[in-house]
Amino acid sequence: MTVIFSKKCEYGLQAVLYLAANMQEDVVRVDVIAQALNIPKEFVSKILQSLREHGIIESKKGKTGGFSLAKAPSQIRLIEIVEAIDGLGIFNSCVLGFPNCNPEHPCPVHDKWGKLRTEAYKMLSEETLDKFKERTLDKIRSISTSDN
Amino acid sequence: MTVIFSKKCEYGLQAVLYLAANMQEDVVRVDVIAQALNIPKEFVSKILQSLREHGIIESKKGKTGGFSLAKAPSQIRLIEIVEAIDGLGIFNSCVLGFPNCNPEHPCPVHDKWGKLRTEAYKMLSEETLDKFKERTLDKIRSISTSDN
DNA sequence: TTTTAATCGGATAAAAAATTCTGAAAATAA
DNA sequence: TTATTTTCAGAATTTTTTATCCGATTAAAA
Asked: Residues A67-77: pLDDT tens digits?
């Protein structure tokens, strides 16, 4: 089985959504995020570090340390997180895996798939984190009540 | 980076498209397919074996052996190959990786992504192999003229 | 009947992705 | 200043995916 985004990317998106939904906190510790999302602490830690290098979030070291968004939620788009972690390759590579798939040498589903891909890209580019606060809080609540 | 389908699935789709585009041949040898598509012979061989087990293609052993479609191209849909190899999980799992993503506990992008996913599924379910013959032949020609 | 050329099937190897470990560095609080 | 608690950085490990190898089986041709 395969997925659209790598696990790294999924976790990164979840973690950033979490931070956006908890803006009232100064910073959030990685173990708090990991527990809320039920994902490995050390792994999400690595992902958060790389998102910091990409300027999407920022960190504070030492006691009272943790992570927070580097910009206002309304200034962060989902596509930025995807680009930082998985890159944008998915939006210009052939869905059938053919090499050099382009308008000159299109694969059999080039046009139809291209349309869907463009819509997906558009959606991720238009949506900013501030739109998701309530839905994220709801979703996170459903995680902690259902598991383990 | 990630892709929609696994490499196995991509190769499987390519190989079946190749068989559909070469219906005039009784059977096609796996090394011919592998060379035409520029993919590892032993790997595509394994994939073809599994597609045979799923009843999508059939094989003939021994000298003059090879692979051919098990049904008419107009009776084979792209989604069948995807289902046989990667399964349909991608069409009902959460794009953000959240567990139990459903209408009761939707993730932040549940509705918008669900729409795209449904369109993708629909496209793969409607398209049958007979629609692709010319485009596949074109594409395969462009592979052998461009590489190595 | 023997040789040849193909798929089959199971094991193995290599590469990539996901995860964990370890210890250092930073910053607060005692 | 020292103890504590956090992120940071890089290495090591595990798991999954991708790819290869090899001997057996099958069937046509010599």
From this structure: 999 999 999 99
Provide the percentage of residues in chain A whose pLDDT is more than 70: 97
Picking from A86, A109, A139, the nearest residue to B98 by CB comes out as A139
Secondary structure letter of residue A57 according to DSSP:
E
Closest nucleotide to A53, Cα to C1':
D8
Q: In this structure, what are the phi and psi dihedrals at residue A9, rounded to the nearest 5 degrees?
A: -70, -45
Say whether B97 and A139 touch across the interface (CB within 8 A): no
- How many whole angstroms separate alpha carbon B115 and alpha carbon B134? 30
Nearest beta carbon to residue B97 from set A11, A123, A142: A11
Residue with tokens 């219906």: B23
Q: Is the CB of B106 less than 8 angstroms away from the CB of A135?
A: yes
B128 CA → C19 C1’, Å: 41
Pairing of strands A66-69, B57-60: unpaired
What is the distance between the alpha carbons of residues A34 and A113, in angstroms, rounded to a whole number?
A: 35
pLDDT of residue A148: 42
Higher pLDDT, A29 or A4: A29
Q: What are phi and psi of A48, to 5 degrees?
A: -65, -40
User: Under an 8 A CB cutoff, do A90 and B6 touch?
Assistant: no
* Residues whose beta carbon sits under 7 Å from strand D: A 1-2, 29-31, 42, 45-46, 48-49, 52, 59-63, 65-67; B 6-8, 11, 39-43, 45-46, 60-65
Q: Which residues contact A129 (CB under 8 A, 6 or more apart)?
A: A16, A17, A20, A69, A73, A74, A76, A77, A78
- Report the distance separating Cα A70 and Cα B139, nearest Å: 45
Question: Whole-structure pTM over 0.90, yes or no?
Answer: yes
Geometric angle at alpha carbon A32, from A31 and A36, rounded to 5° = 115
Amino acid, res. B91: F
Give the dihedral of Cα atoms A81, A111, B87, A1; nearest 10 deg: -30
